[in-house]
């Protein structure tokens, strides 16, 4: 038995609906077949289908046909044609009418962090020297332990010569890392954050703060993004300082290539977009980024309290007066990072604020100020710096 021919879609009579299943392509890409409706010479497509295909629905008039939402084709960037012989609907959607997409140029996902077992290690560096009949042996030694509860280590330096031998403890600490939350707790010897108006200080006590190094490869500085638009499926080549960094497939419509991997300093990123017809568009922009900046919404902090270390490297257990400090930095935007810092000792109290911001494509500007109070009076400082590299 011969198959019955597929009926052609005929114009509907006034105020009556005519439905038909049509094969659909949108901007050259095949989509799922869809049931369209015709009435008074107009063609209507289900609103849900347009939404699935990535059409931006804001501003489109929705009409109800057979108790279902439909959108009329032919206006608002929804051009179309129907091939009656093949029962095919070809949609030509303006790029501005498509939902914007975002593609990361740099993969930032991290796998599950492996949990530690039990173990230990020993590191050593030994140097022997003989000169003018005198012998000297010195060494740096580290003994460590790691476990599911954290890790600890102790370092000592030893020296032996004709005048005698001496062993000095350097640092001893137990560290509990939380890589999922990018933070660490350290109990023992450590170094404080300097912050505006302060200097890093060796101390023995407790320190809690951000620890980006617990996730190797985690990027804290802002990375540039490039925006473009494509009418057809395209391939985007990403260049940094004229060096090809990779390829990205982009869908029709507005798009953004985010997190382009760059080196710090000044440079230029370019995007070469080629569509399926071979047409090419190039987009270029200058950038400036610095490790002093934090990505928008990212924060960095540290709080510590303990006793200042004295005669480090010559005496093992010499600690001085109590001190406490705290530092907080926050990426207010990809071009502006703010900082607040405070320190407290029995004799000095100090606080300061600072900001690092980028003059786009030019340089990094740092501004800050701090004030302190001590038994001898009060003090203040202002700082300003401009840095450019690359």
From TrEMBL:
What domain of life does the UniProt record list for this protein's source? Answer: Bacteria
Q: Which GO terms describe its biological process?
A: pilus assembly
The Gene Ontology CC terms held by the record are: cell outer membrane
Q: Which GO terms describe its molecular function?
A: fimbrial usher porin activity
Instruction: Note the PANTHER family from the entry.
Output: OUTER MEMBRANE USHER PROTEIN (PTHR30451), SLR0019 PROTEIN (PTHR30451:SF5)
Instruction: From the Swiss-Prot or TrEMBL record, give the protein name.
Output: Fimbrial biogenesis outer membrane usher protein
- What organism does the record attribute this protein to? Sphingomonas glacialis
Give the source lineage, highest ranks first: Bacteria, Pseudomonadati, Pseudomonadota, Alphaproteobacteria, Sphingomonadales
């Amino acid at each position: 038995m011969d198959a019955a021919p597929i009926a052609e879609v005929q114009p509907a009579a006034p105020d009556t609906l005519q439905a038909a299943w049509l094969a659909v392509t949108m901007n050259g890409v095949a989509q799922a077949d869809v049931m369209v409706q015709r009435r008074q010479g107009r063609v209507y497509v289900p609103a849900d289908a347009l939404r699935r295909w990535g059409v931006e629905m804001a501003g489109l008039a929705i009409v109800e046909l057979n108790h279902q939402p439909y959108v009329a084709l032919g206006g608002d960037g929804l051009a179309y044609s129907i091939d009656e012989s093949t029962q095919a609907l070809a949609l030509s959607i303006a790029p501005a009418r498509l939902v914007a997409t975002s593609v990361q140029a740099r993969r930032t996902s991290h796998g599950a962090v492996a949990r530690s077992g039990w173990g230990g290690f020993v590191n050593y560096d030994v140097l022997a020297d003989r000169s003018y009949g005198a012998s000297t042996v010195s060494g740096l030694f580290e003994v460590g332990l790691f476990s599911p509860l954290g890790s600890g280590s102790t370092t000592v330096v030893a020296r032996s010569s004709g005048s005698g031998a001496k062993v000095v403890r350097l640092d001893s600490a137990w560290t509990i890392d939380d890589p999922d939350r990018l933070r660490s707790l350290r109990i023992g010897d450590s170094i404080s954050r300097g912050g505006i108006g302060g200097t890093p200080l060796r101390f023995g006590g407790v320190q809690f703060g951000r620890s980006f190094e617990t996730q190797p490869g985690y990027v804290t500085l802002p990375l540039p993004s490039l925006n473009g638009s494509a009418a057809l499926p395209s391939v985007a080549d990403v260049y940094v300082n004229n060096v090809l960094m990779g390829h990205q497939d982009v869908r029709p419509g507005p798009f953004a290539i985010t997190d382009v991997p760059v080196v710090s300093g000044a440079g230029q990123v370019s995007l070469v977009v080629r569509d399926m017809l071979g047409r090419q568009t190039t987009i270029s922009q200058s950038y400036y980024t610095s490790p002093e900046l934090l990505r928008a919404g990212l924060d960095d902090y540290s709080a510590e309290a303990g006793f200042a270390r004295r005669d480090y490297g010559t005496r093992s257990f010499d600690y001085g007066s109590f001190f406490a400090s705290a530092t907080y930095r926050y990426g207010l935007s990809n071009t502006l990072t703010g900082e607040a810092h405070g320190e407290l000792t029995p004799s000095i109290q100090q606080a300061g604020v600072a900001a690092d911001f980028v003059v786009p494509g030019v340089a990094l500007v740092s501004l800050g100020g701090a004030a302190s109070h001590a038994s001898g009076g009060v003090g203040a400082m202002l700082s300003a710096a401009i840095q450019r590299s690359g």
